[in-house]
Write a structure and sequence with these properties.
mainly alpha; 15 helices; globular
């Protein structure tokens, strides 16, 4: 019990610090988008983006949320989503695009450190986001319920009313993010303090075979899936330096992790807003599975062609 209480205590200060850091990014973006919406800038941009995004089942304005997430963070993209009038179907498609393709400059730079091609990885993530959105637009049923997190305002109110409504929504959003980050950090410390992730390595070996990954990469897979690419890459560098995993094996794991990482954080982030966790998890695992096994199959064909 004492160890558990220490986990709760140790997580509080970093949670507040991380939340403040995220809000420094999210709050200005959210305010900018709500003002752009009020003054008609979003509507003007939408008319040029609609021809592409309508094939994905999304309004053209949603491209701003996707581009924000792709270039900054998932949280920044969510801040834009919260400023738009979306149905739950649209929010689900957009959320899947974001979890497949977010923070590209940062995460591609991190991946590059462990030997993977950052440009190839970034392109694969962008392609996966659009392919997934196109497929979901075909198979998802009608979901007319409004996106639960949105806080839009009427166009005929004053700009001060717009800012007031935005401020109220931002306070709710900030509290939600603090609770989410704190929960994740407590869980992370529990996993570390009780050495749970190391204990799960052996039972996960069949999962590694299923996903087409090296069996000795189970710990890397678990770290990347639970804590994200940055933590996963740090663990990869440590194992590479100690000779426990080769650079090629680390590269194979990265092909999986670019589609399937931070599963806990990303899923909870959108799950508390009403987006289906099953949809997010299943799409990401499917793309990770297909990418790794597809790459293996392509390499086998190329070897056979070269030998012939």
């Amino acid at each position: 019990m004492k160890k558990l209480l220490i986990c709760f205590e140790d997580a509080f200060a970093p949670s507040v610090k991380t939340t403040l850091w995220l809000l420094k990014i999210m709050v200005p973006i959210s305010l900018a988008v709500i003002l752009m919406q009020h003054y008609g800038v979003i509507a003007w941009l939408s008319q040029y983006l609609n021809p592409v995004f309508r094939y994905l089942g999304l309004p053209g304005a949603s491209a701003i949320a996707f581009l924000t997430a792709a270039s900054v963070t998932t949280y920044a993209g969510l801040a834009v989503m919260m400023s738009m009038a979306l149905t739950m179907r649209e929010a689900t498609i957009l959320a899947v695009m974001m979890v497949l393709c977010h923070a590209l400059p940062l995460e591609c730079a991190v991946i590059n450190k462990v030997g993977s091609n950052p440009y190839k990885m970034g392109l694969l993530r962008i392609m996966a986001a659009f392919i997934a959105a196109f497929g979901l637009n075909i198979v998802l049923p009608s979901m007319p319920r409004p996106f639960i997190a949105r806080h839009t305002v009427a166009a005929d109110v004053s700009v001060w009313d717009v800012v007031w409504q935005w401020a109220c929504g931002s306070v709710r959003m900030s509290l939600m993010i603090l609770v989410l980050i704190y929960t994740l950090m407590v869980l992370q410390r529990v996993l570390e303090r009780y050495n749970i992730m190391r204990m799960l390595v052996v039972p996960l070996r069949p999962v590694m075979r299923f996903f087409g990954l090296p069996e000795n990469a189970a710990y890397l897979w678990l770290v990347g899936n639970v804590l994200g690419i940055s933590y996963g890459s740090a663990a990869m560098l440590d194992l590479e330096d100690s000779g426990q995993i080769t650079r090629e094996e680390a590269n194979e794991v990265n092909y999986h992790l670019i589609m399937n990482h931070s599963m806990l954080e990303d899923t909870m982030t959108f799950g508390v807003c009403g987006v289906s966790a099953v949809c997010i998890l299943s799409v990401r695992m499917l793309f990770a599975f297909c990418l790794v096994w597809g790459r293996k199959g392509l390499k086998r064909v190329m070897r056979e062609v070269g030998a012939g």
